[in-house]
Specification:
This protein is an alpha/beta fold. It has helices at about 25-40, 65-80, 100-115, 130-145, 160-165, 190-195, 205-225, and strands spanning about 15-20, 45-50, 85-90, 120, 170-175, 180-185, 230-240. Strands 3-2-1-4-5-7-6 form a seven-stranded mixed β-sheet, sandwiched between helices. The chain is globular and about 50 Å long. The chain binds zinc ion.
């Protein structure tokens, strides 16, 4: 495989990172250890969640409003363990029918409003990814990162577009990837990741949380094999110009 000729940007030089996820828990399941390291360095991390995640909740809620409240309660609890302070929700129907370009417009709006110097999302080109929400989110975010400076491509808020002054996005970091080019050392933040994952009671019963932590206990050590540290999270980190035509 011939890799990009562009330099791999340094995620840990970022001061403002926007993490855009399909569901409430994806950022944390994939990258809580990395995100905890970023916030410890003083980086401001903002989450945007694309879907309402209502299909993923375990039974026991009388109605959708209760489920929404529980999902947000869990997400804020998880965030408190890893230093994330800003949350936004796009509320598209989980595993449902929604317009790709509407998602891209909303993501563009948040990028132009927040002006992150790094964006993180799931890898839409993960082989054998069966969940359309993950593919749509990763692709919409990739396009929005490429098109952020092209204000003739409208976001969902004309006022944000009118006020936007072009800024540099140093890179994009994909998690849930099969082609990582960076393994982040999360040995020191592993306890924070476990605490964050164990916050998600609306989506997992106790046995499910145990299985989740066990799976990522093994995975974090598997991806660190051959490294100088014990636990890692795999990322594909790219210069934003590497998102088009294989440069
Ligand atoms: Zn997900």
């Amino acid at each position: 495989m011939i890799d990009t000729i562009l330099p791999i940007p340094d995620l840990f030089a970022a001061t403002r990172v926007l993490c855009i996820q399909p569901h409430y828990d994806d950022n944390d399941i994939a990258a809580a250890g990395t995100i905890a390291r970023l916030t410890a360095l003083g980086c401001e991390v903002t989450y945007v969640t694309v879907t309402n995640d209502l299909m993923g909740v375990v039974d026991g809620f009388a109605n959708d409003d209760e489920a929404r409240a529980a999902l947000k309660r869990d997400q804020f609890a998880a965030a408190s363990h890893i230093g994330v302070t800003q949350q936004h929700w796009l509320d598209y129907p989980d595993a449902g029918a929604y317009d790709y370009f509407a998602v891209r417009r909303d993501v563009l709006m948040h990028i132009r409003r927040i002006k992150p110097d790094f964006v993180m999302t799931c890898d839409p080109w993960l082989t054998y990814e069966g969940h359309r929400d993950h593919i749509q989110t990763g692709l919409a975010v990739s396009e929005a990162v490429m098109f952020a400076g092209l204000t003739r491509i409208a976001s969902s808020d004309p006022a944000v577009d009118a006020a936007y002054q072009s800024h540099q996005i140093a890179g994009i970091a994909f998690y849930f990837t099969r082609e990582p080019n960076a393994i982040v050392d999360i040995t020191s933040t592993w306890p924070q990741k476990v605490a964050a994952l164990r916050s998600y009671h609306a989506q997992f019963d106790d046995a499910g949380l145990d299985d989740l932590v066990t799976a990522f206990d093994h995975k974090s050590r598997q991806v660190a094999q051959g490294q100088t540290f014990a636990r890692g999270e795999p990322l594909k980190v790219l210069h934003t110009s590497a998102l088009h035509c294989g440069i």
